[in-house]
Amino acid sequence: xxxxxxxxxxxxxxxxxxxxxxxSAAVREQHGKDTTFHPxxxxxxxxxxxxxxxxxxxxxxxxxxxxxIIPFGTGTSCEGHVAALHGGICVDTSQLRAVRAIRVDxxxxxxxxxxxxxxxxxxxxxxxxxxxIDPGADASIGGMVSTRASGTNAVRYGTxxxxxxxxxxxxxxxxxxxxxxxxxxxxxxxxxxxxxxGSEGTLGIVTAVTLKLHAIPEHIAAATCSFPELSQAxxxxxxxxxxxxxxxxVELLDDTQVEAVNRYxxxxxxxxxxxxxxxxxxxxxVQDQIELVxxxxxxxxxxxxxxxxxxxxxxxxWKARHDIWWANLALRPGSQGLPTDVCVPISQLAANxxxxxxxxxxxxxxxxICGHVGDGNFHLCFVVNPDCADEMRRVGQVNRRMxxxxxxxxxxxxxxxxxxxxxxxxxxxxxxxxxxxxxxxxRAFDPAGIMNPxxxxxxxxxAATS
Amino acid sequence: xxxxxxxxxxxxxxxxxxxxxxxSAAVREQHGKDTTFHPxxxxxxxxxxxxxxxxxxxxxxxxxxxxxIIPFGTGTSCEGHVAALHGGICVDTSQLRAVRAIRVDxxxxxxxxxxxxxxxxxxxxxxxxxxxIDPGADASIGGMVSTRASGTNAVRYGTxxxxxxxxxxxxxxxxxxxxxxxxxxxxxxxxxxxxxxGSEGTLGIVTAVTLKLHAIPEHIAAATCSFPELSQAxxxxxxxxxxxxxxxxVELLDDTQVEAVNRYxxxxxxxxxxxxxxxxxxxxxVQDQIELVxxxxxxxxxxxxxxxxxxxxxxxxWKARHDIWWANLALRPGSQGLPTDVCVPISQLAANxxxxxxxxxxxxxxxxICGHVGDGNFHLCFVVNPDCADEMRRVGQVNRRMxxxxxxxxxxxxxxxxxxxxxxxxxxxxxxxxxxxxxxxxRAFDPAGIMNPxxxxxxxxxAATS
Lengths: 466, 466
Hints:
Two copies of one chain form a homodimer.
Chain A: H1 6-17, E1 21-22, H2 25-31, E2 45-47, H3 52-65, E3 69-72, E4 89-92, E5 99-103, E6 108-112, H4 117-123, E7 129-130, H5 141-147, H6 154-157, H7 160-163, E8 164-170, E9 176-180, H8 192-196, E10 205-212, E11 214-215, E12 219-226, H9 230-242, E13 249-253, H10 255-265, E14 274-281, H11 283-299, E15 303-308, H12 311-322, H13 324-330, E16 336-343, H14 349-362, E17 369-372, E18 377-384, H15 389-408, H16 424-431, H17 435-445
Parallel strand pairs in A: 2-4, 3-4
Antiparallel strand pairs in A: 1-2, 5-6, 6-10, 7-11, 8-9, 8-10, 12-14, 12-15, 13-14, 13-17, 16-18, 17-18
Helix pairs in contact in A: 1-3, 9-11, 9-14, 10-13, 14-15
């Protein structure tokens, strides 16, 4: 498949967008790179639409001229989602920033794609509601929809999939559609909304999202607990989940990770496998949860069970958790991060984490382990020098082995980072003959192959010639 | 579109299936009718495969000869889902009844499509786990996937959509695919699993399902409370949801419904708008919930707050709730039921229910109202004589007005019953220009149009000539 003349598209868009269409190398490069080691693949131009009609206009021009479109949120994805593999026009959605409605009575809100999760929560201040999904980065809601983001709160509230009630989408032909309604449940036809959630901009551009909101828990308590052995920490999580404790968050940090966090965030956690818990609910519910979890932790050899009930102590703890990325990079000045994640059935979690840790040691790599372990989801964050081919080869091997173990025990090749172009082969392996159905979806919704080409399925396959 | 020769398909299947292929009028009619007023539309034959390979065999023959296939679970759907509108072969999945695995440690199970929810729960006895989705009827798990069933527990546990981790599906060409994994969350490609959930057998035949299981709550309490006015009952639910109370179930019955239930199930509830609550959780959590909800009910004029903490009292109450269908039919001997449902944003619930009730009175119809009101979902169950054209015209008007009001306030034309062929026009109205995307999905996955034709989108459109 050959794409059309991108310069013709740029010329057609210039009169409408003026200085909201950028050809500067710096802007293009910034939009062709995510936060990870993936090399820059800059688009030919970056356009900053202010309103949905402008998104439609861009898409119509690109459809007309058969030019690739790469939707862009905040660029905080992990698997090369924003790389302009075949050039084209990047549509930066950050200026679609209207909070169209907050409906406190219905516990929902409609926001444009460029609103970030922190902006949304700031707007919710004083309503008694919050939007709990928290992937760490202050990602845009549109981007979080597109990558099916989750993070620390997913064990309690689910992922983006569970939060999205309806979507406004510009399709690859420039038309605007709405999927879903504000009803909490529906049996009306195919679940188009959830087909777009996690579609990584390959089927259309999300321009607005209606989301569930949640009552801020009456009471929140956080605690840390360290364990002599990683397996004991994981066992504590497994038993907590199995006991049906509706825990708010439970995060695992291995000893390497704790050391990095202590150093970067000036904490004094024991350098040992550590769990960070958060409990949400009524006072009675939280008390019951705490007692049960503390018993489970004690039975598994947990020590240093420490409370952080004051909001400022909790904030400090979670800020440290969220700064893990920077803490890891600081372990090795000048390095880049290669974060990878898998998600496994929880009974398999300890074995998977342990094996990954041994692989890292054996391959002489730096890769702290952390995880949203209540879901069976964990990360290796390789701290790498991407220019060292031998190191990258070893990283690739450890990553592949981690994913293959996850698939072998019934897990997935990515719990929350997505496929981008970094994990296409693993998706192929995971899906087996269902991979063809992924291609069926892509071809049916984007027959011209202009929406973020080369991602998820890798289609159009013959793009190398474009 | 003309379909092929169904008798040729029958001849090709006979040698393999013997008396598991039925041509008897009684069997065919039973499979061409759901529990509602929809007229019989019998398939040409009913086949009872025992294993997945036999499902593939049937589908291959039908694909080869271009013969319609109608998947069948227990026939308890509501919108004509199983009607053989264009004839063809009905695939009764009831003999796919293996419970392939119950994995207590992972809180999941893999069952074949024909296992019913009660069978599954019986198999879970003693594990401390349960499968909470409860649409009333003892539906098959495959059917519940296909209709995206929900019911009384959805306010707490979500619908089938939230329970399904992965699916085994026979596609319209007879090939077998698996979607999803046992991981609790995944960002691996398009959400094929949830595209099949709710697809009503129009994209393939679900043969096995991996489901989430849930810990049986440590403590369960149920209560009833009646209110002078319907709006007060609804207001109590709205405020309960808005307060973030993680209530287990909350069901509304209007006065007509209470009267029918009292008569049929020999209860002595006050004949007034009534809520039935169920609280799940640790003892402390349940106590907190109860106090809060009781305060809310009191403030809204609730009276006769009555507890049912003993399991036998709870069972009696919920049995009565589940027998509503039969209680309603008993209001008018010889009648049939026409159940319809909508789901609206919760702030709109009182107005929608009130308006529907007034319409029913005005049109001189019998239609008790009940609902899974924590989700904003409610039902009118018209008790009808389908042979009376004038009555059916009035029913149609009231139904249409109820749905149009729901759509106008951001709701959906069906919360849990699905589209079948009964609500295609309403789906068209709800989806607007996104209706074309529903057709895109159907055509991409079933280009020959043999899977349960005439449902959801109504495709193939020119089937009248088949």
